[in-house]
Write a structure and sequence with these properties.
Elements (H helix, E strand, L loop, with lengths): L1 E6 L7 H11 L3 E5 L10 H6 L2 E6 L7 E6 L4 E5 L12 E6 L2 E7 L9 H18 L8 E6 L23 H12 L3 E2 H5 L15 H4 L6 E5 L7 E6 L1 H4 L10 E5 L2
Parallel strand pairs: 1-2, 7-8
Antiparallel strand pairs: 1-12, 2-4, 3-4, 5-6, 6-7, 8-10, 9-10, 11-12
Amino acid sequence: MRIATFNVNGVNGRLPLILEWLEETQPDVACLQELKAPDEKFPIKAIEKAGYGALWHGQARWNGVALLARGCEPIETCRGLAGDPEDGQSRYIEAAVRGVLVGCLYLPNGNPQPGPKFDYKLAWMERLHAHAAGLVGLDSPVVLAGDYNVIPTDRDVYKPERWADDALMQPESRAAFFRLLDQGWTDAIRSLQPDETIYTFWDYWRNAWGRNAGIRIDHLLLNHAAAPLLRAAGVDRDTRGKQGASDHAPTWVEIDV
């Protein structure tokens, strides 16, 4: 089973590119982030025509997540994270697909830091920790896939000094990410390619794509049951190079189920 995550940076504005990517790579599960569309504007008819069932949690102009399943309907198990009843941002959706539980997440960016946005990022990560703690030991495979907005190490960024003040690379952000791994989650790409230069995001500014000045912030974490099933992981870099593309590239894993 191929499970992919893709921050699309606007699901309707980039719909032709998204459909082209689905046709070319045919992921069994596709987790989409940053829909930037309310629920009623999600392009479900086009998605279904492409052969996918879907769940989505939209929000006007900002955020939004969706989970697509090829040839079937995903079975929703969770929408949003517990712990803050005042949080109205659409950042998490979870479903079962053919025996695998998949969580699709869009972790807060946190900039500018310090400040309330960074505080919200760290608080959201604590809520994710609490939820993930109940999933990591399940007997069934679980994959937490999405835009984590965390650069885990200096190896995951083109020039660390240029990101030193960014919320994505603060010690608190990194520590929270590694506390998640310490629960027992496996960073799929790094487990298979520990020493490779791998990026999943290239800014639109200063020809970052042309210079390969990227960062790795899109991650797929596997629980105890899923990690031994991992067979491959990678990044669909060609998608980022197309005209009008998102600033993220799709990132994926393949597991035996």
